[in-house]
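Data card: per-record layout.
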Amino acid sequence: MTAKVLVVDDVHVIRKVLEAKLLAEFFEVVLAGSGQEALEKAHSESPDIILLDVMMPDIDGFEVCRRLKADPLTSHIPVVMITGLDQPSDRVTGLEAGADDFLTKPTNDVALFARVRNLVRLKTMFDELRMREVTGLSLGIANHADPAREAAALLNASILVVEDDPAMTELIRSQLAYQTGLCFVTGDVEAKQAVRDNLWDLVIVSLTLPGQNGLRLCAHLRSSERLRQVPVLVLSKVGDDRSLLRALDLGVNDYVTKPPDRAELQARVNTQLRRKSFQDRLRETMQMSVEMAVIDPLTGLYNRRYLESHLAGRANHDGASPRPTALMILDLDHFKSINDRFGHAAGDTVLKQFAHRIRLNIRGVDLAARVGGEEFVIVLPETSGMEAQMIAQRLVRVIGQEAFVIGDGRELQVTVSIGVTEARPGEAAEEVLQRADAALYRAKGDGRNRSEVAS
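The structure for this 455-residue chain is written out next.
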């Protein structure tokens, strides 16, 4: 995977060396020699990732990172801080400033490239989700972040820790004591059972489990469609670069070396939990946008667009099925007079209650859709025309027997007319709908409050 990398370092030689290495790996490279230049090029060049030196004369890397993460236009860009500082407190400062990783000079080239590719993969996914969130916000179907709610979710996150060393387990338990949702298991078998039975916000895996079981568990998490979005933080032994690189190549999100420093472990855990919260919010927005595209907002039934797609799919399916599909069109009688006499709010209330009664009186496999103002369609798979007529007659009775409540103690008697037909194998959706519509007009012409089957 290629990407555009912004390299920020005040030493010309270091910039050129990193540029040569990255170009050899087919990355596109942009160079900046100061903190201010880095901020400007982050806006003008839109890099996929930033490699940021800490010690610079104008604005140090920590402050550059804070400004990048505080700016909505650059906050999504992954930042890897590269520096000669090697104290745990320096790493924690970088992580708290918003850095996605913190590497010490001289960097291991393989580790650096693995981190770059891993973070670019994550950014690619988040970019797509962010675009959909922006669209959702503009349409009013997404919510802005709620800091108080997210802070509470951070403390109550469910975290699975897989570690077989009792001393290390107790150390991690004490360091993450503020987390209320910690769960510890000692081996990959227990871990696989735990991830099957629960949804986790973060999984922490030791790479020192016997028989490379830590790596196998990471592979299992990333190969499962249900689990691959769960962030994974691995605990790596100092000097075991081979296992760490394999873990990064498998797609784990981050790592901490054993024994972990308290502040660094907490910072990396919090970073992954915040990212998971952000990701969940984006996916929720995406799901809402999908539903908005196919769901009628007033009644909660499917809309015409979904119905047409569904009928096209059924036309292909029904040709191979021994049982027919029936379809009915329902139209509320004299609905315009309800709007004229009682107002559109009362009309909307009637439509909502009507949709609710439809749901209560059809099967789970049946599909109900609102296709116009007061016009609805029900698709009944594995149902003959005569069977559908009996269902339609029941719906006519259910709608007409009980009054509709429209507020302020007012009630209305509302009736429905229904046209019923049976789809022929391979028949176009338009033809089926036209035939059912013709039956509906006969029901209307014969006095309403009744159903008719297409001849």
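Known properties of this structure: The chain has a mean pLDDT of 85. The two ends are 61 Å apart (CA to CA).

See the next section for split statistics.
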